[in-house]
Design a protein that fits this description.
It is a single chain. The protein is of the alpha+beta class and 413 residues long. Helix content is 32%, strand content 32%. The chain contains 4 helices and 24 strands. Strands 2-12-15-14-13-16 form a 6-stranded antiparallel β-barrel. A hairpin with a 4-residue loop joins strand 14 and strand 15. The radius of gyration is 50 Å and the shape is rod-shaped.
Length: 413
């Protein structure tokens, strides 16, 4: 019994190497736990970096510099194109082959100036023939006139002899009859002369049609035909016949046609002052006024055409240029001070921490700038004297989560 107890106690005893291994285990588990915590922190940081820096979708607008007087007096704006009231494609009134084309694009021509010539050999021959016929008719009239004069003398002589009884009365009557017949022949020939002269005039007109002249003074905008081509006022088809030599535009007749939405046409009045800006020259403002409101509407676009006259003519204005017209309440003054700063949409200005700020696009990020808007308003625009430059893109209606340095992506308005 004592032996058995001794064996049991011996088995329960812990050896030294077993106590050393047991003491080192807690340290190893502490290292494993620490590494796991560090790994979790790194994963959390990467997740925050990836998910917390997503781009915010925003809409932007461009800050513009105010003009003289701005557009505060504009009741409406509309777009259109420069058109010419006097514009003609010049052609001949007969069909013929071009022997000379005397114009080039950009040439200034005067009314009546020769632009082109057609082959006139056939028409010259026809004119010569008509003139010859007219000359023959005139010569025959002269012959009948001489015959009439002779017959008048013969009739007078026969009448005198008949009165004396030296010749029978029948001879005197025959002389008078011959005189009347000669008068009738002369009258008929005079009618033939008038007809021959008319034929000669027609031949002359047709011959003159071989020369193409400018119908009015202007500038050649297109040259449509070349020497050797057939010119005809009627299209012959097939592309071998030209219907015009070129196009002439009277630059003094240039005006702007704009399409105004029919919902706002009530704001436009005849002779209303306006200001035109050409797309090609955005900094050049041209004084203008309303000429007429065309009394018809485009049902497809729901617009009405308005004619706007330019009060200053300039060589820079050419047909078919795009233009923007501002219709004004009153004629703008010549000298008006231009306010300093830029104009931005009112919706671009928001409050952050009690300050008015705007967010300016800087590459793919935005920068917050504190601003002090002017009290004067320009419709839905506000004047910012400082902090923003012309041409800067500002965020319109910035979302609440937008902050300085946020990544953004823009969308079209």
């Amino acid at each position: 019994m004592d032996v058995d107890n001794a064996e049991l106690l011996k088995e329960l005893r812990i050896e030294r190497h077993q106590r050393e291994d047991h003491g080192r285990n807690p340290g190893r588990w502490l290292w494993i736990g620490g590494a796991a915590v560090v790994l979790l922190l790194l994963l959390g940081g990467l997740a925050q970096l990836f998910f917390g820096q997503h781009a915010v979708t925003v809409q932007t607008a461009t800050a513009v510099a105010p003009s003289a007087g701005g557009e505060a007096g504009a009741v409406l704006q509309a777009t259109g194109y420069v058109t010419a009231r006097r514009r003609a494609t010049v052609s001949a009134q007969i069909t013929g082959t071009l022997t000379a084309v005397l114009i080039e694009e950009g040439d200034h021509v005067q009314q009546g100036q020769v632009l082109a010539r057609l082959d006139d050999h056939a028409w010259r021959a026809a004119l010569d023939a008509a003139r010859a016929q007219a000359a023959a008719a005139h010569a025959l009239v002269a012959q009948y006139q001489a015959q009439l004069a002779q017959n008048e003398r013969d009739a007078a002589r026969q009448q005198e002899l008949a009165v004396r009884g030296l010749v029978p009365k029948q001879a005197a009557e025959q002389a008078r009859t011959l005189l009347d017949g000669t008068r009738a022949q002369l009258a008929a020939q005079q009618k033939q002369v008038a007809a021959a002269d008319a034929q000669a005039a027609v031949a002359q007109v047709n011959f003159d049609y071989c020369v193409v002249r400018a119908p009015f003074s202007g500038v050649v905008t297109t040259k449509d035909a070349q020497v050797g081509e057939i010119l005809s006022p009627l299209s012959a088809g097939g592309g071998f016949t030209r219907t015009g030599v070129g196009t002439i535009v009277d630059m003094d007749s240039l005006e702007i046609d704009v399409d105004v939405n029919e919902a706002y046409i009530g704001r436009i009045k005849p002779d209303m002052p306006a200001e035109a800006v050409l797309d090609a020259y955005p900094d050049w403002k041209i004084p203008a006024h309303v000429v007429a409101i065309v009394p018809t509407a485009d049902r497809g676009k729901a617009t009405i055409k308005v004619r706007v006259a330019l009060e200053k003519k300039d060589a820079r204005v050419v047909p078919d240029m795009g233009a923007r017209v501002s219709f004004l309440e009153q004629q703008p003054k010549a000298a008006v001070s231009v306010p300093q700063g830029v104009l931005v949409p009112a919706a671009a200005i928001v409050q952050r921490n009690g300050h008015s700020v705007v967010f300016v696009l800087d590459g793919s990020r935005v920068r917050q700038r504190t601003v002090a808007p002017a009290t004067q308003t320009y419709g839905d625009l506000r004047l910012l004297p400082t902090a923003v430059k012309p041409g800067d893109s500002v965020v319109v209606s910035p979302p609440a989560e937008l902050k300085d340095g946020s990544d953004v992506q823009t969308k079209k308005p």
